[in-house]
Amino acid sequence: MKFRTRSSAIIGTLCLVTSLALATASADEPADAPVQQVSASLTEVARAQGPSAGAAGPDDTVWIAERAGTVRILDDSGLGEPVLDISDETTTDGERGLLGIAFDKTFAHFYISYTDLEGTSRIDEFAVESGQLHPDTRRTVLTQTQPYANHNGGDIKFGPDGYLYIAFGDGGSGGDPDGNGQKLDTLLGKLLRIDPSGGDPYAIPADNPFVDDANAKDEIWAYGLRNPWRFSFDAGTGDLLIGDVGQSDWEEIDWAPADSEGGENYGWASMEGTHPFRGGTEPANHVPPVYEYDRTGLGCSVTGGFVYRGDALPDLRGSYVFSDYCDGTLRTLQLENGEVTGVGDLGVSGGEVISFVEGGDGELYVLGSSGVVSRVDPA
Q1: What proportions of the chain, in percent to the nearest 5, are helix, strand and coil?
Q2: Is 48-307 a CATH 2.120.10.30 domain?
Q3: What are the structural domain ranges in the chain?
Q4: Adjacent-strand bridge partners of 18
Q5: What Å distances lie between residue 18 and 141, 192, 264, 346, 378, CA to CA?
Q6: Is 181 in a helix, a strand, or coil?
Q7: Distance CA 122, CA 153 (A)
Q8: What does pTM read for this prediction?
Q9: pLDDT tier at 35, thresholds 50, 70, 90
Q10: Which residues fall within 8 angstroms of residue 163, CB to CB, at 6 or more apart?
Q11: Any bridge partners for residue 110, and if so which?
Q12: pLDDT tens-digit readout, 116-172
């Protein structure tokens, strides 16, 4: 999680690391991976109150969520008046709030992911017609009790398959005290996959990996996650990338190919990245991160981003852009078939980066804790 006040950190057990040495390569990354340097700039396009997430909307709009519970539409003059306000239904206590928004592929429905006043994670749906959200059509799709105020996760995205993916953290505290990451009888510490239009309140896709396992939740797509704060699908390939926030030593980025059948175990809390956590034993089915970095290097809390598919920076196309809340540098990975073939950065810092947003045109926006909404532009 990413939110911090000026006087104290509220990102669980994460601590600010000031050393900005080079990252330590993961076991699966070639030690001599070449550096690909692409220069970019950040253009401020708006200011928000605690921006937390965003989504490409109808008619090439970009919708921005504010953590306290409002959603605004970005246009040439900045952010308009709220099109949705649930500020009386959510809390910003701990790492809670309005944490994710998404449209389905036809822009017929809009989804929000937030924690309510009792701290329960909720996914709600609204009908959209001619680009207008209709608050009176609201319905609750899914809820999940959260035992602590941190590691709620909260990101939501529609995959290339048209299903809704939901990321939940391990439930909070530190060190996964309830062992949720490796348990299959809870939705915590998981990436879920559901069909919100296929049933009431939703349907389970028949090819989800655990539908025939009586001891597992049918909604689970992948597990072994600590706090998958931000994940995305490559608009070009359909590959999945997850930025999973580490406990105390390692930040990781997980990858799965577009043709994955699900069921990946990313290791938490037996593993932190490629390293056994507190004497844990590596699971036999552990899928190691495609990339990890040491907290003595690049920061303290990975902010997952997107594979760039826009036109403004052609040399960046196909690179995964991500950052770290404590470092802020916009960094890049070049990947081929799940292997890192190059690392680099854009030579610019987004400050305390909360999230990235991919516009309908493939251009990227950066949300900072200061409230600045920036577009990634050529240098």
Answers
A1: 0, 45, 55
A2: yes
A3: 48-307
A4: none
A5: 41, 35, 33, 19, 28
A6: helix
A7: 12
A8: 0.92
A9: low
A10: 193, 194, 195, 205
A11: 103, 126
A12: 999 999 999 999 999 999 999 999 999 999 999 999 999 999 999 999 999 999 999
